[in-house]
Amino acid sequence: MKYSIDTYPLYKDEKKFAFVVRAKVRMKEPVDIDILRMAANKAIKRYPYFAKKVEIDETGSYRCMPNDKEVSVLPMGEKTPYLCSEAVNGHLLFLECDGRDIYFNISHTMCGGRGLQPWVMTTVWQYVADKYGIVPNAPSIRKSYEPLLDGEMDEPSLDMLPQEEPIYEYKSKNPKVLIFDYLNGLYNPFVRNNNYRVLTFSQKDVLSFAKGNDASVAAFFLIVVAKALDKLLPAKDAVIGGEIAHNMSANIGLKNAHCDILSHIHIDYTREQLQMEMEKLGTMTRGQIILQTDPSVSCKELRQKLELFEKLDTIPGIKAKRKYMKEHDLSTGKNARHGTYYVNYTGQMDWGDVADYIESYVLIVEGHLMLEVTSAGDKIFVCFMQILNTDKYINAFRDVLNELGISFTSEGPFPKRLPKHQLPGN
């Protein structure tokens, strides 16, 4: 590929959905925006691959270039500014502050939930250190003065991918796709409501239940959503399909890479299977995750993605590249495979003493029946997102949790307020 892997997703279509990740950290005390601004600009020096601006080069292609301007830390306004705009000094990221909440907005072109989390943690660590005049004990958090990890700026290439045949191939059972929900959410102003809710769990409760039913955290929430939809969807919808992203960096020797190196796992549940005992569902779900994260399986999707990016190098002009990406994007193009719902889990990260200053940490993205699962300290957080003004999905989800005896608290709904990109040449 001619450019950084972070560049090619800039050609994605944002007419309907924003390609941005918005992390929300709720502190236990009101945030001092001036201290946060200083902390954010100390922290960004640790992440040069995020301090970028977008230019158009001599071939008429996007290119990410270093940006030495200050990272914008803004009070929450009536309108959320665009990434890459003058309001955020051309950056592909910026922060907002509102009471106890810090919002980290970053282009999904550069990373996903796993990739942005170290930057978020560094910034919060620095903020706590500066505000309270302490050195929080958090060995796993990368400090603003520490060097890059080995391979942190490395990117995948076709020649590093395994060549063997996949040991497994997902055969779709044609799960229900909530196409009418999406159409209503896009075009019907009476039901459109791009919102999220935050559910908080004891980590001990979730881990104990998952372990006792041969599941993992990700498998547990995949099953709960499927069982919730089993309560709502008509019997003619024979299959309910879950989808989850897998960061495969470690599979190809890039365990410290910041960029999105994702494959997608699909788990189709028949309505009969959803009546099975939780332990059998746990075994089935965890088994599918293990199979589909095998490098011989997951690398096939990455190969297709890198081949798509190489093809974009041969297409002249931004408009033509955007058209080709819209048609061939693996996640939204004409050959994309869709589930009924999505659950992503970034995994457990050790916040150390910084967790004592945080009330919650969630990831907000585009999507309908999209769950982003995160953790901090002894808590697990679920951001439950949808695009419709309805309570039926969240109520069914909460009903299943109650039936399983899982305690939680719930807040929301809140508006997503996701920004989009303001790219040159558009």
Report the order of strands and helices: EHEEEEEHHEHHEEHHHEEEEHE
Quaternary structure classification: single chain
> Proportion of β residues?
15-25%
Shape: globular
Strand order of the largest sheet: 9-8-10-12-13-7-14
Structural class: alpha+beta
Rg for CA atoms? 21 Å
Detailed description of the structure:
With 426 residues, this protein is α+β, with helices and mostly antiparallel strands. 29% of the residues lie in helices and 23% in strands. The protein has helices spanning 33-43, 113-132, 179-187, 203-212, 217-232, 278-292, 295-313, 318-328, 392-404, and strands at residues 20-27, 52-56, 62-66, 73-75, 93-98, 101-107, 192-202, 239-247, 262-270, 341-345, 358-364, 370-376, 379-388, 409-415. A hairpin with a 2-residue loop joins strand 12 (370-376) and strand 13 (379-388). The protein is globular, with a radius of gyration of 21 Å. The two termini are 24 Å apart. The model has no long low-confidence stretch (mean pLDDT 95).
Task: Sum up the structure in keywords.
426 residues, alpha+beta
